[in-house]
Amino acid sequence: MSTHVLAAVLTRLKLLTGTQSDAELSRKLSISPQTLSSWKVRDSIPYSLCVDIARQHACSLDWLLLGEAEQSPAAQDEADWECDMLERLRTLSPSDRQAILLVIKDKQRIQQLEQKLNALRGAAND
C-alpha cells in the first residue's frame, strides 16, 4: 500500500468515524496512537479492521480501501448526501453538533411514537 493510498484510507476512516485527527481516530478505533503511527511507518493497515469498520458503517470495502463505489446511482446519491452532511457537521462547533444530535433524537422518538400509535390503532380496528 503506498503512503498516498494509506492516507486516503485513513481519511475515509476519519469520515466514517466522524473524527478529524489521528488521536481522535485512534480512540474511535480503540487502538493506541502508537499503533496508528506504526501503520503509517509500515504503510499498512490491518485488513480485518477494515472489514469490521466496513460492516459497522455499511460501506463497501472497495470504497474504504480504494475510494471506489460499487453502488447503484440511488445508493451513490445517498452516499454523496451522507458525505456532504458529515463534512458540513464537522465545520460546526461541538455545541452546535450536540444541538443537532438532540433534534435528531427527538425526531426519532416522535417516529417511534407514531409507529406505536399506528400499531395501536390497527389493533383497535381489528
Automatic annotation (TrEMBL):
Residues annotated as domain Bacteriophage CI repressor N-terminal: 8-69
One Gene Ontology molecular-function label: DNA binding
An individual GO BP term: negative regulation of DNA-templated transcription
Superkingdom field: Bacteria
Protein name: CI repressor
Organism encoding this protein: Pseudomonas inefficax
Classification lineage: Bacteria, Pseudomonadati, Pseudomonadota, Gammaproteobacteria, Pseudomonadales
